[in-house]
Each structure stands twice: as structure tokens, then as C-alpha cells.
Amino acid sequence: MNKKLFLTAAAIPVALIVPTLASAAETVTVTGQNIVNETLTVHQLPNNAIVNAYQWYYLEKVASEDGSKTSTNKPIAGATSASLKVPVEAAGKTIFVEATTTDGKKYQSEPRTINQLDLAITTPTLEGFSTSDFVAPGETVKVAGVTVTDKAGAKLTSGQITYSYQWFYQLGEGENSFTIIEGASGSTYTIPKDAIEKGIKDIIVKVKAQVGTSFVESPRSEVISISKEPTDTLSNDIKNLLVNDNKYNVSDIKSFEEKIKALESKYQALSEPAKGNVSNYAVLKRALADVDLINKLNEKVDKVGGISDKDLPAYIKEIEAAYDKFDLLQRSLDVNDALYTSIKNLLNEPNDLEEIKEVRRLNLAIVNLLSYSNGISQYVPSDKDSLQGVVNTIEADIAKLSQNYRGAVQNLTILNEAKADIKKVEQFIKSFDKLSSNNTPNKQVTVAKSIRSTYEKLTYKQLKLVPDKYGQLLTAAESAEESQIATLNNDIDSYIGDDIYPINPSASSWQSHVNNVARMVKEYKSLTKASAAQIEGYDSLVTLQKDLKTAEKVIKDMDAYQKLSGVTGVTESKLNSSYTNTLKAYNKLTSLQQSLVYNAQEFLLNTPKVSVDGKVPADKAAAEALKADIAKFADVTKFTFNQLEKAVDTAAQSYKKLSSGARKYVTNNYLLTAAQKDITGVKSFYKKIQTAKEETDAAKQAKKIESVQKAYAKLPANQQHLAKEQYEALLKNQIIDENAPNIKQLNDELATIVSNDQYLVSIDKINTLSKQYSSLSSSDKKLITNYDILKAAIADVKKAESFMKTYEKSFNSNPSTVIKAFEKLTSKQVSLIPSDIQKWISEKQQGQQQTNEQALTLIESINSLLVNGEYIAGLEDKVKDIRTKYDALSAQDKKIVKNYSKLTQAESDLKKVADVHALYKVDGDEAAQKAWQSAYGKLSKKLELLYKNMYPQDMK
After folding, report:
1. Is 371 helix (H, G, I), strand (E, B) or coil?
2. Contacts by residues 530-535 (CB-CB < 8 Å, ≥ 24 positions apart)
3. 876 Cβ neighbours under 8 A, 6+ residues apart
4. Element (H, E) at 373
5. Measuring CA to CA, which residue among 626, 667, 620 is closest to residue 648?
6. Bridge partners of 54?
7. Does 606 have pLDDT greater than 80?
8. Which tens digits make up the pLDDT trace of 6-32?
């Protein structure tokens, strides 16, 4: 019960008691009805009253000690406004309002008594059960509607009403005799699952309502009966859908569908708890699904007429596969086997002799795409477009075959490879779109290199499909730089020399020579790597370019001196300094660099004049004689090294003996200093020569001489002259290295190892040439202009050797692997394979391409196992015979039997049927009989017919 029902007026907290006023000359007027929830409002105030506060009061009678009753005023909490909505607690009580003015005067209204509440309540209504007549165990019944009103006219709100509930059930046979249901005191009541077993069959509910201190109790609700009758009826109807576990109770699929849909509607109308009482709903659910499957398959069969011939075999196969998945229970919906018969009429297993004949013709046509010569195969016809036409015709004819016989066509690898090779050749030909005679020679050679790379990857068969004109275009593009190479070599040769440059420059021709050298360097850099390797003297050309810059600086310095010498008033010291510095720079030049200084002779003849002031020394004559001797050092070419060394030593000693005054007269002492430096530089160079001479190992001496040659090239011209005798003696007496590589011979040999896309040498020879190249120094390797030929040959040798390993490992056990690997070799790679091996592979390849009559016959036998979707009589013996013949085939021949899965399916189906038969017991108990029936019911229609054919005695 709700505890609010037990609240009474006595429980209301005691409030502040306000004494009643003794009298009031004037009163406050209030309007409004004396009804709960109505509003009372101050309507009239006394004259001259300025009210700033109100308080509403209950007028109550309080018992005194002498037993008499006195009146007292009790403030109504929160009622301090000019208006008051009459609270529920005021029902039956007397109230008034007191107004207080700003000066403290108080005025009261006349007391008025609020009407007492006289509550009324309607009969409760119930909801939450599936039918209007019954409520099922597990369902929850809910009080849906009950209304409380005040007969005296108060407008009650829902928040002012408190409800409590109690559920009852009819006890015994007494009329309208109900007893309390313990714990059932909520607005809802869930029927226990075992209510009927406990005697709870008819139930009612009563509702109590409280408003303030007033109470009212409802009449009892209508009696609701608890029953399983609706779900029991539904369960029984579902049970009657089956004759047994493997058969629906159906005579017409349409009426059966209507019936199960009606039952489904009844089931869905139940509440969730009531649905739980339908224990066999799974039967109805499956029936709905099975009818849907049958209907959809019927629809698919009806659409057969709209399917194209191309898609029809696969479409029919899908229909057959779908029906084969039906178990015996599902097939019982196929009344009189109407659907099965329709599907059976659609089936037509491929056993047409004409198709076998066409397969044999196509097999031969595919084999004839190849011809063999000297162990190498090539296509027939040999031009790409004609071959494409033949391939297209064969593919179109294969597409006309039925699905199963398409799988019987042999040697499809040849056909597929032909298509792939045609595509590869077309891609190769398209690469020539990038090649144009309008391109620069460099561009043509670069593009040709890319095309050549693709060309060399073509197999022999692919290569034979390429028209000859493309080979000619490729060769022409590859040689586009040849004339440019010859011209550049001639130009470079006209500019370089050993001791001097042969160009004899002048002030007017200088810039043209600089421009020509720059042009030649630029042309060289524009060449492809292979073409650049054919240019001779490029390093000397680069040295010339540097020498031109070095010589140009000295030329400018000489011109500056000449100009300075013609200026009046220039001091001797400044002029002498300019001359000396320029001469030093000139003497540091190599002989090649000096040959470029076209104004040197004029400069050397215009030596500056030097005046000597002061007292004449006693040894002046000796100084002037020494000056004459030193002047000879201006041209060291008139001295040998030993002569110059001796003359320089003598001059140096003479210079030291002169007095300081006399030394001023030796104005060309700078020549002596320069000669001394030349002597020192040559001696240092001689040490390198001596080290090279003392080396006894030819290879090591060659490297040291190479270092000496580089050092000699950097010596100034005077030092080169002085060191020339010993330098040439070193080169002349160099130890001859008998094992030194012959670069020209290696280059020539490499040029002749391949011709017409065929190697003319063996793998061993290529390996020997590779070793020779590897033994070269890095500088010598740069001289091998035909290295690209060797590089390609080395790669081809690796491919050929890899193939030979495959051949040795697998030729006898798995020749198809070897043949496949052989087909991938390029024309050049094939030429490295011994001819006898090429011949063996060719013979094996042709042998494997022969049509196999035995395999085709076996295909026909396997297809004959089924006729219109049903296995033939005597299936077991027929399958055993086919299995024996199939197992006798080679691994390659077995691959031809594309319908082999049909044989294994027949074997599997025979086993399934035998396994079900093994469960059959003539005198078996009920459990054994049920196990057999369950297994039998899961058989497809095809297996059901096979079972009846093989074990007719089980059907009795």
C-alpha cells in the first residue's frame, strides 16, 4: 500500500499561532469560489489604506484547558500575495486574509469555509494482453485507465492524486469471490508461467486514490481470464503443417502458402511472452523459407526463355545446383515433381559427336600455329597481322562450343602465348613512334638504345613477327652519330700536339680558337656514352681548354708590359717589376702552354733598361761580365741540364764575390734566380724517374711511369726541355709487360661475338672475354668501347646457364617446365644452348602437342554418367571403369580431362548413397528407423533417385 494513504491532518506541522484581532472597524473584500484549486483574490481595501503585505490564515478551533474551544489563526505557508489558489489541504477549512499597511495597520477579510472534497473514481481498465478474451502466462497486464473527480466541483490535477493498487484472483467456485495475490501491488502484473497450475485463472484489480486527506476506492475491474488456448491452437495448427519430419502436409503449393502466411500473422499478433509459448514456431519459420525458395526457383525457371544462348548453360547449371540443395522436406513442396520435371527438361548434357569432332579440328589448328626448324619454333603464318587473324578465328570457333567441350580443347597455352606475343610485338613496334629523322643524332641514338633494349628481350618467335623494316630503322638510328664522331675526331686532332699546339694563334684568331675548343667539348658532352667512347684525344682537348685560359692571362700581362714601356715618365723600377713578374709567369708555363702565347717573342726582346747611380765600384767590369753570362739563361734550350747546372753554379759563386755596389750592375739577376728554380724542379722530377727506373715489376713500373708522365706534362717549358733526355730514356727503356692486356684485340673480339641476333661464340668464350675485361685497370676499362656488347652477353650467359640447370633437373621428370623456360629465352640466348638440347626440347614439345584421343573419349564417357540431370543405371560399374582408365593417363593427359570433377562428384554421390543405405535396418528399432529416415531425407533429388535405383528393397 502507498504510505501516503496513511497521512492525516494531525501529521501537519504546527505553525506559528497569530492572535486574532480584537476588532476591525473596516474589512477587506475577497472574491472567488470556495473550492479547492479555485483562486481567491483581494477585491476591495479600506479607504486611505496603502497595503504593502498580505497573509492568508486558517481559522481553527483550539481546545482550552477548561474544555472550551477558542479560535486561533494559523498562517498558510507561502500565502503572502493578494491572490490565493486554494490548496488541497484547505478542503473543509475556514480561511481569511490579513492586509498590512505601510504604517502598520492590519485589516482582515470575512472568514469563508472551503468546500469539503467528495471524491469519485471510475472502474479501472486493463491492457497488455494479446486477445480481448484471454491473457496468456508470461504476459504483463497493466492498469491503463482510471479517473478521479470531485463531486463538489474541484478541478483536480494528476499531481495531487496518489494511487495504490492490489491484484486479486478468484478463489474456488464461489461467485465473485476473490483473494489477494501476495506482492501484486503495482500498476502492472506479470502472469506467472505456472499461473494456471497454481489455480490463478481469473484476476481483477482494485485501485485506491488519495487527494489531501480524502480517499476513494474503485470498483473492481472486469475479470480477465488466464488461458493458453490461443497459443495452443496456433501450436497445433503449425504441427499439422507436417505429415512427418521429411514431408509437408501439402496438396497445393498456393493454398499451403496462404495457410502458413495466415499462421504467421497470428503469431506476430501475439505478445513476446505469448510467442514464447509457441514451442514449434521453427517449423512455421522453415515452411515460410522453403516456400520462398521453391517460388524463387520457379520464377527462375520461368525466365529461361529470356536468357541469351551464351549465358544459358551457366543459367541452367545454377538452377540445377539450387534444386540439388533441396532436402526431402523441401522437395515435398514440389507437388507431383512439377518443378523437377521442368528443370529436367532443360538439361542437355554435352555428348554431341559433332562437338567432339570440332574439338579435334581445333586441337590440330592450334598445333599448326607453330613450325619447327633446327630445334627452334616459330609461328605460322610468320607475319603479325596474319597470325592475329588465325588466332581470332580459332577463338571464335572455341566460343561456339558448349561449356564442357571448351574445356576439352588442348594446347591453349600455344594460343595464349601467340596472343601475348602479338601484343608484345605490337608494343615493340609502337616504341618506334618516338623515333624521328628530325631528331638530333643524340636523340636518335638515345631512343634507339631504349628500343634496342626491348628488341633484345624479344624471344625468337616474337622476333620473327617483327617486319624487317623496323630492324633497318633501328640500325640507322643507332648509327646516327657516326659522321659526327668522325668530324669531331678530325677537329680534335687538328688542335692537339705533343710538344706544341699546332694552331699557331694570333691576336685576331685567338677568340675563334677558344670558341672552337668550347664547341668541341660541348659536342662531346652531347654524345651518348657509347659514341663518346669512340672519341680520341678528348682529355687533351680539355687540357687545351684549360691551357688557353692560362696562356690568355700571360698574354694580357705581356700586352700590359708593352703598353707600360711606351708610356713616358714610368719609373725604371715599376717597368722592371712588370717585366720580371710577367717573365716569371711565362717561365712557369709548359711548352704546350707557351706555344699559345703568340706575343712572347716581342716581349722577350723588349727588356727594360736599368740605370745605376752612385760611385763606380772597382769590380764593375766583373759585374758587367757576369751580367752577360746570366743573359744567356734567357734561352735554356741552348743548354743541357748538366751544362745549365754548371753555368748556374758558376754564376751564383761569381755573384756572391761581387761587392754590394757592383751587384747593382747585374740587373738581370732574376734570370739567375729562375734558372736555379728550374734546376731544383728538374732534380725533383729526376727522383720520380729514378724510382720508376728502379722498379723491376713491369706492371708496377707501368703505373709509376704513368705518374711520371703526368708530372712531366705539368712541368714548365724550361724544365721539360732540361728533363726531356732522361724522360725519353725512361720511356724507351720501359720493361715490356708480356701479360699486359691488348685493348684493341679485346675490342675487336667483342665486336664479332654476335651477328643477326645470334651469338657466334660459346658460353665459355664469353666467360673468357669477361675475365679479360675484369682484369683491366679502371683506366683501361674506359677504352673498351664495345663493353655494352660484353655486358649483354654476360647477362644472356646467366639466363642460358640458369635454363641449363632447369633442363638437367627437370627434363625427364617434368618436361613441360623445361619447355616453358625455353620459350622465355630470347633469340640470342637460345643460340647459346647446345643444338642437340634444342632438338630434344623441340621433339618433346611437338610430342606434347599431339591430340589425345583417349582423353577425349574419356570426356565423353564422363559426360554420359548423367542424362537430363539423373544418373544412369549401372552407375557404380561405369564409374569404376572410367576411374581405371583415368588413373592410367599421364599427368599431362589428365589435365586435358576438364570434366574430371564430374567423375569425382559421381564417386562422392555413390558414397553418400551407400552411407545412407548402411543405416537401413530391416528389423531395426524405432531409433534406427528414425536415423535412416533423417539421413534419407537430406538426400538431393538426384541422390534420392540413385538410391531407389541401387537399393529398391529399402523402399518396401
Report:
1. strand
2. 530/445, 530/449, 530/785, 530/788, 531/445, 531/481, 531/484, 531/485, 533/782, 533/783, 533/784, 533/785, 534/485, 534/489, 534/785, 535/485, 535/488, 535/489, 535/492
3. 910, 950
4. strand 370-373
5. 626
6. 99
7. yes
8. 333 333 333 333 443 434 447 899 999
